[in-house]
Each structure stands twice: as structure tokens, then as C-alpha cells.
Design brief:
five-stranded antiparallel beta sheet; 23% strand; five-stranded mixed beta sheet; D-tyrosyl-trna(Tyr) Deacylase, Chain: A; 531 residues; alpha/beta; Beta-lactamase; 21 strands
Length: 531
């Protein structure tokens, strides 16, 4: 009896304890109302409209929103929410880099790419030493059509500039090259990736490695099309670096009406691409731009092939020449990099050269389509021409001083690690962006810089946004996007005819990019219609 009583008591205790824990851990059937972030607002006020937009999705309540809207002429605040909070700005970071370049370098700057050797070919057309393909940061050694109009367009071949250079070498009478073909990207310090870039980004076009010798945006275009019948391997082609990667094609063709499902893998540092999955008969195909691993070597090899195709005997191999980062002491307490002394170099013979379009045309590409590689090259160019070296640190040092000393942004309102915003360590406040926008509007280069921004509903990364809304054609702004991060910063014209500068940044959200962008667009429309 005693054992039974004790057992009954223990069972009763267990049931009571389980009921208590269940009451503590079981979620309520309806989520609690979010704590309002603002006091009661009059019906129809801008604050109430913005709150109503975000209330449409409970996930927006758990994100961090930063908004700064100011009158462009006076700087008077129109709306402010967390405007002084440091947030990840994503590609809005490009506004800092492009404005610094336009102010300090100018839109007329041109890049030079050359093919050089130690001496002229002899009377038999023989060069006894190496031939160098020397890059100096030109981002448009490609088939890209410039000036930019509405969208990115490319002409074949993608390597037409290299082909033109090879033609010029042949025209210079070169018949034999005893030495190597060297891809020389030492104009910039060898830093292929930015600090804080994700490993997942590095295989794709937007994470392509940075090199002063950049051709075709340092990517290879992969085209995948269905085979001749179900069960056949897919047709896979690479252009232009057809032999750069070892390729495993495991994509199978399936019957019509099935779903396309293709995976692509390249491990960091690997020269092997693996494609797997399925593609149905009748599918138009899939095209992807994949980064190449080592641009200087790849482009040296490509030039070597082009020279051989023109009847020039090349006895040497293809290799790269870098300015290694370890040769440059690190920045200490924000002091400039010390440039190591170098012996004077004997002038080389230029066999061929290519002059770029003006820098202003590439700034259009950078801001309109948010081109990461081009703006990273620009950051290094800033360091090379206005700092102590073509390095990330030198470029950021110049940029930091420009933003603080000329624009007047407080140093506590930004912390930058790259030029593109791909880094997840970079931070800035919405107020810092509106301060930059107001400063730029007063500068001689301000109109040219504003023209690089996407136009709502018209072109670039805003071509499909704001269509059919009041803001269409009234907003010129830079977009930004990372996982859990969306941003939009720029100029706008309100319903009352007032010119404003605005910056909207949302961090740590689970809305998904489309929903986050729609909320940002709705907030912009609310701001413009309220004024």
C-alpha cells in the first residue's frame, strides 16, 4: 500500500510539473501585438502610413529599419527613424566609392592596357625575352557596349580587346617569342577579394576576383541546353575561357514538361566545375556567369593562344606577375601604408596598347547595374592615384578622409571594408548617406554623379520597380541587397515639387528580397505623396 501511495504521489507530481512546463513553452495561438515603435499618430500622417505599410507583414516588426529623409536644399529633416544607427548598407556603399572617385579623379580619366617587352623584335621578328600583358585597372576589356543605355548589352567576341592587341603585336612584325607571356596585374596590390566577403559569393559573377588585369569581368559564361533526347547528357559550353576549367557535365536531359533543376559547384581555389541535375527537352536553356579563379594567369594564357593563332611562335609558358600584399606593411592606427622602395625600371617597348573610354561611362555601369568588380577596381585606383598604393587599405584611407574632411560626415557614422558593399562588415548610417547626397548636389560633379543612378521604373536595378506608381520617373536611387539586407538611397521629387534626399536601410529581416523591396518602394511612395 505504501509503495502504491508513493507511486501515485510521484505520478501526480509528474503530471502537475508537465502541465506547468507545457503552459510555459506552448506558444499562444495568436501572436502578441508588436510593441509600437512610435507614439500614436494622427490618422493619415506620414508616420502612420509607414507603420501601416510595415504592419502588413509581422516579419517587418522584427527587422531593424533606418530611414533618413531630408529637404535637399535646406537639410531640414522630413522623416527620421534610426537615422543615426549603424547598419549594413549593402551596395549603397558604392555611393561612397563613386562619389570619391568623381570628386578626386574626375570623369575624364582613361585606363591604359599595353603589351610590352624589354626590346624591339630583331630583324627576323624574334623577341628573346618575355612579353607582358600589363593591366592598369580597366574594367571594360570586354564586349560590353558603352555608353550604357537602359540595360547591359554585350557584343561578341567577349575578348575582342585582347584580339585587337594580338593583331597589333602581329602587325609590329613579331614572329617568335622565346620567353613567357606574363599577365602583369602589379599596378594594384594583389588582393582578389574583400574583407568580409562570403565564401558562397566567390563562385559567381558578383564575387569575381579583383585584378588590375581584368577581361570580360573575370567571368566565363556557361551555357546549358538539353540534349537530343531524354536520357542524353545536356549540351554544356563555356565562353570565352573554354579550356580554363576542367568540367564535369552530369546534367541529364529529361522528358518535356518536367522541371529544370541544375546545380553548379566549384570549391574555393579549385579549377574544376561540376554541373549536375536535370533539364527537360524543349527548355530554352540556362546561362550562368561564373568567376574565374586567377585572372592574370587566365588572360596571359588567352593572349598566348591568340598570338599562336596569328602565326607567332611562343616558346614560353603563360604566368602571372603580382604585387603581393605581404610586401606592403599593414596600416597602423589609420596611418597610410608605407610603400616599399623599388629600383628604377628600364623603360619597356610597347608593342600594342588600348585606351579605355572615360571613367564617367563606367560609373554609369557601376551604379546602374550595381557592378561589384568595377567598383572594387575603382577603390584600388583611388588608392593608386590619390593614396600610397593600389590597395584596398590605401583606397579606403583616401575615401575615409574625403567623406570626413570634405563631405563632413562624422567618422562614427561609417566603417568601410570594401568599395562595393559585398562585405558584411561594412556599416553606415542612413544620415551619412543623406549628408553625402546633399553635399554632392552642391558640387560641380554632382549632376554627373546623379545621372549614374538608376531611374525608377526606367533603367538599371530600378527598371522593374515603381512601375505604375507615383514615384516612377521621380526617383533616382542606388539599390542594395544582401541576405537579410535591403537598401535604397537617392534623390526624389515630391508631389508638392520639393527635392529631397532619402536613405532607407532594413537589416536582419526575414521578409525575402521581393517583399522587402516592395515595402521600401511603398514607403518611398508614401513619403513623396505626403509632401
Amino acid at each position: 500500500m505504501l509503495r502504491l501511495a508513493l507511486r501515485s504521489s510521484r505520478l501526480l507530481l509528474i503530471f502537475l510539473l508537465a502541465g506547468f512546463l507545457n503552459a510555459q513553452t506552448t506558444p499562444a495561438t495568436t501572436p502578441p501585438s508588436p510593441v509600437p515603435s512610435h507614439p500614436e499618430q494622427p490618422v493619415g500622417s506620414l508616420q502612420a502610413r509607414i507603420d501601416a505599410i510595415r504592419a502588413q507583414d509581422p516579419r517587418a516588426q522584427h527587422a531593424i529599419w533606418g530611414i533618413s529623409v531630408v529637404d535637399l536644399a535646406s537639410g531640414a529633416p522630413i522623416y527620421s527613424e534610426n537615422a543615426g544607427i549603424l547598419l549594413m548598407p549593402a551596395s549603397n556603399t558604392k555611393l561612397f566609392t563613386t562619389s570619391t572617385a568623381l570628386a578626386l579623379i574626375g570623369g575624364d580619366y582613361k585606363f591604359l592596357t599595353t603589351v610590352e617587352t624589354a626590346s624591339h623584335p630583331d630583324k627576323f621578328g624574334r623577341i628573346s625575352g618575355d612579353v607582358l600583358l600589363v593591366g592598369r585597372g580597366d574594367p571594360n576589356l570586354s564586349g560590353r557596349v558603352l555608353p550604357y543605355l537602359k540595360k547591359t548589352e554585350r557584343q561578341l567576341p567577349h575578348t575582342r580587346v585582347l584580339e585587337e592587341l594580338a593583331d597589333k603585336v602581329a602587325a609590329a612584325g613579331v614572329k617568335v617569342i622565346d620567353g613567357d607571356i606574363i599577365g602583369d596585374d602589379s599596378y594594384f596590390v594583389y588582393e582578389r577579394y574583400g574583407e568580409g566577403w562570403s565564401q558562397d559569393d566567390l563562385m559567381w559573377e558578383y564575387g569575381a576576383p579583383v585584378s588590375a588585369l581584368t577581361v570580360n569581368d573575370n567571368v566565363v559564361f556557361a551555357s546549358i541546353k538539353p540534349g537530343s533526347h531524354p536520357g542524353a547528357r545536356a549540351l554544356l559550353t563555356l565562353d570565352p575561357y573554354t579550356n580554363y576549367y576542367a568540367v564535369r557535365d552530369l546534367v541529364m536531359t529529361t522528358r518535356p514538361g518536367t522541371q529544370r533543376n541544375i546545380g553548379i559547384l566549384r570549391e574555393p581555389g579549385s579549377l574544376e566545375l561540376t554541373f549536375w541535375g536535370t533539364i527537360p527537352m524543349g527548355d530554352p536553356g540556362d546561362d550562368e556567369a561564373l568567376s574565374i579563379e586567377e585572372p592574370a594567369t587566365a588572360n596571359a594564357e588567352f593572349l598566348r593562344t591568340l598570338l599562336q593563332q596569328r602565326g607567332i611562335l611562343v616558346r614560353g609558358k603563360a604566368r602571372a606577375l603580382h604585387a603581393e600584399l605581404w610586401r606592403y606593411p599593414p596600416t597602423i592606427e589609420n596611418q597610410p601604408l608605407a610603400v616599399p622602395p623599388s629600383a628604377p625600371k628600364k623603360p619597356r617597348v610597347v608593342l600594342a596598347q588600348h585606351d579605355s573610354v572615360p571613367l564617367a561611362e563606367d560609373l554609369q555601369v557601376i551604379n546602374k547595374v550595381s557592378q561589384n568588380l568595377h567598383v572594387e577596381l575603382l577603390l584600388r585606383l583611388i588608392g593608386k592615384l590619390r593614396g600610397t598604393s593600389g590597395s584596398v587599405s590605401a583606397g579606403l584611407d583616401v575615401e575615409k578622409r574625403f567623406l570626413a574632411e570634405q563631405v563632413g560626415i562624422d567618422l562614427t557614422e561609417f566603417s568601410l571594408f570594401d568599395g562595393s558593399g559585398l562585405s558584411r562588415e561594412g556599416l553606415a548610417t542612413p544620415h551619412a548617406f543623406t549628408q553625402l547626397l546633399r553635399y554632392a548636389a552642391t558640387q560641380p560633379w554632382g549632376t554627373q554623379w546623379k545621372e549614374t543612378l538608376p531611374i525608377a521604373g526606367e533603367d538599371g536595378s530600378l527598371s522593374t520597380r515603381f512601375r505604375g506608381t507615383f514615384a516612377a520617373d521621380r526617383v533616382e536611387a542606388k539599390t542594395g541587397q544582401l541576405g537579410g539586407v535591403n537598401s535604397l538611397t537617392g534623390y526624389a521629387l515630391t508631389k508638392s515639387g520639393k527635392n529631397i534626399a532619402f536613405s532607407i536601410i532594413v537589416n536582419h529581416h526575414q521578409l525575402g528580397n521581393n517583399k522587402a523591396k516592395q515595402m521600401i518602394d511603398d514607403i518611398v511612395n508614401a513619403i513623396l505623396e505626403a509632401e
